[in-house]
Automatic annotation (TrEMBL):
InterPro entries: Phage_capsid (IPR024455), Phage_capsid-like_C (IPR054612). Transmembrane segments: none annotated. Residues 108-402 form the Phage capsid-like C-terminal domain. This is HK97 family phage major capsid protein. NCBIfam families: major_cap_HK97. It is found in: Virion. Pfam families: Phage_capsid (PF05065). It comes from the Bacteria. Its main location: virion. It comes from Glycocaulis alkaliphilus.
Length: 405
């Protein structure tokens, strides 16, 4: 062992003379002395690192403690300090009597400004698979519903003609109108007055976490399974049919059968699960496949992840880059835990261009009503938001129905 250490020290001196000199290892010194110098230097570096870590921890704590002060004072340390200043004052109970000028409505609540709205909606989009995939519309004018016009049928009777040849008439494209009603969703978190008085309380995080968590969870569940009564209509609650696009009425989705009740078809039948998934891909028109994605929950993904083709290759290609989804048969996979598990008759897998198939409508303006009276020692924040959702183009989304017929 001693000879090995001497050999290591000698090699270190050979490749790093500058470091060796810095460690007081002169050319005439032996390997043992050089090794001791290196060990001492390593110990010093370790001690200095510990000191730096302690300083960093103290700075982080100081920055956290001053976060609220920076927001409330409008300092340059916070990107949206001036925008957040009225909201910070309102939540902590320090809003002036004339604060109607910064957005309070007739109910005495606080209406979040468009700048904060954009931040909150971006958080919601990042946390929701349906919001990432679907088309989202911000509705600024007052109203209880949103109307969308889309082409339900292409123009017909076109043709090739010469320069002066007579042209025949063409039938105009068919237009359909979809009405998406807006509904109100709410959350009512509460915190102690003492917590509000604590200078370490981060107001921006409090508001964004509440919206992204409570309201986001309610909305995402409705976009998938909502029944349309006092909430958005989820795409899985629309009628489905095995008929192709040309034979199916608008508003009815097409389903592809798995071939087995509550499961994929058994391999012994000679039909691989990959075949059924491929059927689903090619039931979607080519114009929709360009931006198509899969949607399923984690349990279903765990089943599909193990599937192979006839040559033993996995159908699922795991992502190797952060922020990039895995792919199935070449198309990205999004995970939404509100999708049902594989069961008898369930529609556990969806595939399509959700940008064209489903539309989410948000009414701009998030209202926060501060209640410091009904529960002594606590402050409640009644937060409301209006949103809606519905299928626009039923040809753009396909679902797999786990049934034999």
């Amino acid at each position: 062992m001693k000879n090995a250490l001497k050999s290591t020290a000698s090699r270190f001196l050979a490749v790093s003379p500058v470091m060796a000199n810095g460690a007081a290892a002169a050319a005439g010194d032996g390997p043992e002395k050089a090794l001791k110098a290196i060990q001492a230097l390593a110990s010093d570096i370790k001690a200095q690192k510990a000191e730096l870590d302690a300083v960093k921890a103290e700075l982080d704590r100081s920055f956290k403690m001053s976060a609220r002060a920076r927001i409330a004072s409008g300092g340059t340390g916070t990107p949206h300090a001036e925008t957040l200043k009225p909201l910070a004052a309102y939540i902590t109970g320090h809003a002036p009597e004339n604060s109607m000028s910064v957005g309070q409505d007739s109910k005495g609540g606080f209406t979040v400004t468009p700048e904060i709205d954009r931040v909150i909606f971006e958080f919601a989009r990042n946390g929701s698979a349906m919001r990432r995939l679907s088309r989202t519309v911000l509705m600024e004018n007052a109203g209880s519903e949103f109307e969308i016009l889309f082409t339900s049928k292409r123009a017909e009777a076109g043709g090739w003609v010469g320069e002066t040849q007579e042209r025949g008439g063409t039938e105009s494209a068919g237009m359909s109108k979809i009405t998406i009603p807006l509904f109100e969703t709410y959350a009512e978190p509460k915190v102690t007055q003492r917590l509000l008085d604590d200078s370490s309380f981060d107001i921006e995080v409090f508001v964004s976490d509440d919206i992204q968590g409570t309201l986001g969870e309610l909305e995402d569940a409705a976009y998938v399974n909502g029944n349309g009564v006092a909430k958005p209509k989820g795409f899985l609650t629309y009628d489905t049919s095995a008929d192709i696009d040309a034979e199916r009425p608008l508003g009815t989705l097409q389903h592809v059968l798995s071939g087995n009740d509550g499961a994929f078809e058994a391999v012994s039948t000679g039909v691989l699960p990959a075949d059924r998934l491929a059927d689903m891909v090619y039931s979607l028109n080519a114009e929709y496949r360009v931006n198509a994605s899969w949607l399923m929950n984690s349990k279903t993904a765990g089943t599909v992840r193990k599937m192979k083709d006839g040559e033993g290759n996995y159908l699922w290609q795991q992502s190797t880059a952060a922020g990039q989804p895995s792919t199935l048969l070449g198309y990205p996979v999004e995970i939404d835990e509100h999708m049902p598990d594989i069961a008898s008759g369930s529609k556990a897998i969806a595939f399509g261009d959700f940008q064209r198939g489903y539309c989410i409508v948000d009414r701009t303006g998030l209202n926060v009503l501060r209640d410091a009276y009904t529960l002594k020692g606590w402050v409640k924040f009644y937060t409301t938001k209006r949103t809606g959702g519905g299928v626009v183009d039923s040809r753009a989304i396909k679902v797999m129905k786990f049934s034999a017929a």
